[in-house]
Design a protein that fits this description.
This protein is an alpha+beta fold and 168 residues long. Helix content is 38%, strand content 15%. The structure holds flavin mononucleotide (FMN).
Length: 168
C-alpha cells in the first residue's frame, strides 16, 4: 500500500471480526517492531502478541471493552525505565521509545488491512501484574489487532495551520 494511504487507513477500530491475524501479518509486525528507532538504539522494550484466550480474558478484565475481547489478538508494549536513555534532566525516554514501537505496529497492521486501537487508559499496575512485569518494566500501551467489522466515521482534524508551521 502507498505510504500516505497507510497513514489514512490507520484509524482507531472499535469493532472486530473473530478471524485470526494471518501468520504473514504477524511476521510483518515483528519486523516492524525490530526496525523501530529508540534513543541511543537501546531498544528498552518488549512486545507481547497475545492470542492466548486465557491471557486475553485477563487483559479484558483490566480494560473492560467488548470490542477488545472481540479482537483475535492483543499487542502489548512494555518499556524498561532503567535501561532506556535518560533526558538531560534525567527523565527516562521509555514512553517515547515505546510509542514509536506502537506506531510501527499500528501502521504495519493498517498496511496488512488490519485494524488496531491504541489503549493507554488501563490501570498500569494491574496490566504489569498480568504479564509478570516488575519495576523497572512497565506496560505503556496495548492494542487489539484484527479485521474491522465496520470502519469508523471521519474524525475532525485541526487545521494544518494550527498544527504545522513552516519557519523559513
Ligand atoms: C497515546 C494514545 C492513547 C490512547 N488511549 C486510548 C484508550 O485508552 N482507549 C481508546 O478507546 N482509545 C484510545 N486512543 C485512541 C484515540 O482516541 C484516537 O487515536 C483518536 O481519537 C484519533 O482517532 P483515530 O485513531 O481513529 O485517528 C489513544 C490514542 C493514543 C495516541
Amino acid at each position: 500500500m502507498e505510504f500516505q494511504e497507510v497513514l489514512k487507513r490507520r484509524r482507531s477500530i472499535r469493532t472486530y471480526k473473530p478471524d485470526a491475524v494471518p501468520a504473514e501479518a504477524i511476521e510483518k509486525i515483528k519486523t516492524a517492531v525490530r526496525l523501530a528507532p529508540t534513543a541511543c538504539n537501546l531498544q528498552p522494550f518488549k512486545v507481547f502478541f497475545v492470542t492466548n484466550q486465557e491471557l486475553k480474558d485477563k487483559i479484558c478484565k483490566i480494560y473492560k471493552a467488548s470490542w477488545l475481547s472481540a479482537a483475535p489478538a492483543i499487542a502489548v508494549v512494555a518499556g524498561n525505565y532503567a535501561e532506556c536513555w535518560k533526558r538531560l534532566e534525567g527523565d527516562p525516554i521509555a514512553d517515547v521509545d515505546c510509542a514509536i514501537v506502537m506506531e510501527h505496529i499500528t501502521l504495519t497492521a493498517a498496511d496488512c488491512g488490519l485494524g488496531t486501537c491504541w489503549i493507554c487508559a488501563f490501570p498500569r499496575a494491574e496490566m504489569d501484574a498480568a504479564f509478570g512485569l516488575k519495576s523497572p518494566w512497565k506496560t505503556v500501551a496495548i492494542t487489539p489487532v484484527g479485521y474491522a467489522e465496520r470502519q469508523p466515521q471521519e474524525r475532525p482534524c485541526k487545521s494544518a495551520e494550527e498544527l504545522f508551521e513552516v519557519i523559513s
